Amino acid sequence: MTFDISIVSYLPNPIRTKIKKYQKLISEKFNTVRALDWVPHITIADRVLIPEDKFSNICSELKKVCSKTKPIKVNTKKLCFILLTKSSLENPYVVSLKVETTKELQRLHDLIQNNICKGLKRPGYKSDKYSPHITLAYRDLTKENFKKVKQFFKNYPIKVNYSFKLDNIQLVIPLRNERRRSIWMFKFKK
User: Where are the beta strands (DSSP E) in 13-162?
Assistant: First the structure.
């Protein structure tokens, strides 16, 4: 058996609640629901295939990393509208909040990508520059609705500058209906 895992950091409340409101607003106005399948988060490593016999060791390594990591201050910068040009998705349009790439966040990403995930299969993984973000809409956002979302936010500006601390890593697995569920959480040191 192989676990198809994403390694993410869930946002703390009340930021999570605010992001969920933006996701629901976009969902209701522009017929997009895929972002609602996830708890608001910042991705550290997407789609890591972990064989069952390595799962325990991976968890131990993540626990070690988290026990040595202090909570990471995060700042969001702006609303982004992205066309994934290298994507094979039918609707490669993304609306997200850009997250400032701090030294600490980059260090955590690099440590997990280059050490813990090294040698594991990564379907669709591209080793492009790390671009942390918080997804508001993706995958089922059509080209027409993508344009409408852009126009909507020109007329209806939202707060995009948030500051908060990440204090966890979650291992998240897909469920049958495309929703995700956290199966393991590691807290950073206090």
Answer: 41-51, 72-83, 93-99, 133-137
Question: Pick from 39, 53, 49: which is nearest to 134 by CA?
Answer: 39
List phi, psi (to 5°) of 117.
Answer: -90, -5
- CA 101-93-91 angle, to 5 degrees, is 140
Domain boundaries, the chain: 2-187
Task: State the Cα–Cα distance between residues 163 and 150, nearest whole angstrom.
Answer: 24
Tokens 């069952």 belong to residue: 52
* Per-residue pLDDT tens over the stretch 37-72: 888 999 998 889 999 999 999 999 999 999 999 999
* CATH hierarchy code of domain 2-187: 3.90.1140.10
Q: What pTM did the predictor assign?
A: 0.90
